[in-house]
Amino acid sequence: MEEVSKGNQETTIQEQLQAKREASRHYEKFRRKRRPLPDWQIGRPWLKYEGDVMFCTWCIEAHFACSFVNGSKAAKLESVKSHEVSKTHLLAVTQREELAQNNNELLTIKSDDLKSIQQDWGSVGNQVHCTASVGKRGKNK
Ligand SMILES: [Zn+2]
């Protein structure tokens, strides 16, 4: 009875050691695994993560073909930085800027249109007012 319990204790200690070893091995494996860091996204609104895979939304929107469109598994800041200055990405940035400019021009045209529409409405309003007063005068006569 005593010997059995002693044997069990030894096994438990060995199991504990084994578990500790496995835990540290698992920790090493986990720690060494590269992961994209949230810090890298600061100042980079185009950088998106899906798990450990990095994407560039701007290059995806521009329908470019590069590693950041398909999803980069490099998980290195250097990869992010090199994509940031890559020809395709810079072209995507330029395209976005041009698009934003065009949108601004469209907005300017729209506000000009709105002014002329308001002027039209103003003159229509005057005409209505004039007609109304003429009518009133006519009624009073
Ligand atoms: Zn890009």
Describe the structure.
With 141 residues, the chain is mostly helical. The protein has two domains: 1-32; 34-119, no CATH class. It contains five helices and two strands. It has helices at residues 2-32, 57-61, 67-70, 77-84, 87-140, and strands at 47-50, 53-56. The chain has a two-stranded antiparallel ribbon with strand order 1-2. The longest helix is centred in the C-terminal third of the chain and has 54 residues, at 87-140. The mean pLDDT is 80. Bound molecules: zinc ion (ZN).
Keywords:
single chain, 141 residues, mainly alpha, 2 domains, two-stranded antiparallel sheet, 72% helix, binds zinc ion
Low-pLDDT windows of residues: none
**Number of helical runs?**
5
Proportion of beta-strand residues = 5-15%
**How many domains, as an integer?**
2
Main sheet: strand order = 1-2
Mean pLDDT: 80
Structural class: mainly alpha
Shape category: elongated
Order of helices and strands: HEEHHHH
Give a list of the ligands: zinc ion
Q: How many E-type strands?
A: 2
* Cα end-to-end separation: 127 Å
Largest sheet: 2 strands, antiparallel
What radius of gyration results from the CA coordinates? 35 Å
The helix content is over 70%
